[in-house]
Amino acid sequence: LFYGDLKEFLVVPILINVMLRLENVSKAFGGVKAVQGCEFSIEPKRITALIGPNGAGKTTVFNLVCGFFPVDAGMIHFTDEDITRAPIWKRSRLGLARTFQLSRTFKNLSIEDNLLLSVRQDDDQFFSMCVRGQAQDDQEKQQILEMMKFVGLEKSPQTPVTDLSYGQQKLFDLTRALLNPHTLLMLDEPVAGINPVLRERFKELLLSLKQKGETIFLIEHDMDFVRAVADWVIVMDQGSVLTQGAPQTVLSDPRVLEAYLGPAL
């Protein structure tokens, strides 16, 4: 499309090429302003990292996007929809999938049974549950096996989820998020507390997923990991976006170093 003005012509593809957009989003808990006037966009088919010191508001932003907390002000758009007031289930159906800092599972179920809850998106529909056949069950279980193999979760699907080590829980969380039909994968500190070998595995997995066309939005404190995987970095401090840009530029910004380490003496 061309409107006779080059500036307007260039703006059109930029607006279209946005998967998630926050506009002036704010959230307070009592007198604590956790997020203040937060604005940024996530573009498709790349890895965007959200970083900042503890208490900067990163996980609160994730919770606002997923609908765990209502926003006090501002708007959230996902693809072409306004999801600011949408319920959690609708955001999931639209394509939001996420992991948490700590694994959340049904501890009395096996790995397979936990993962089936992610694969099945029609369990709230009575008719669909009634006509579900063995072939569909077998297809879903095969899908789970293939995804476990892809991420490197080397356990029997019948293993109780409580038998997973901490690192295996991280792989389980990624498996569950990937099995949930999605267009945006949100990962909250995916490599926190894991060993270097598994951290390298996560790096390879995320880069492989990006090559497959996945859009990934992650929170992470490991700056070496961020440098290795991120195409774009957004830095938060005291509830607001401090700066954003390419990793090599952002991670050497004096303002970012000050936010993490404090002012130079």
How does this structure look, described?
It is a single chain. The protein has about 260 residues and is α/β, with parallel strands linked by helices. It has 11 helices and 10 strands. Helix 6 packs across helix 7 (about 165-180). The longest helix has 18 residues, at about 135-150.
Lateral strand order in the biggest sheet: 6-7-8-3-9-10
Average predicted confidence as pLDDT: 88
Structural class: alpha/beta
Strand content: 15-25%
User: Could you state the order of secondary-structure elements as H and E?
Assistant: HEEEHEEHEHHHHEHEHEEHH
User: Number of DSSP helices?
Assistant: 11
Unreliable residue runs: 1-15
C-alpha end-to-end distance? 54 Å
Level of helix content?
A: 40-55%
C-alpha-based Rg, rounded: 20 Å
| Biggest pleated sheet | 6 strands, mixed
Query: How would the global form be characterised?
Result: globular
**What is the count of β-strands?**
10
List the defining traits of the structure above.
265 residues; 6-stranded mixed beta sheet; disordered N terminus; single chain; globular; 4-stranded antiparallel beta sheet; alpha/beta
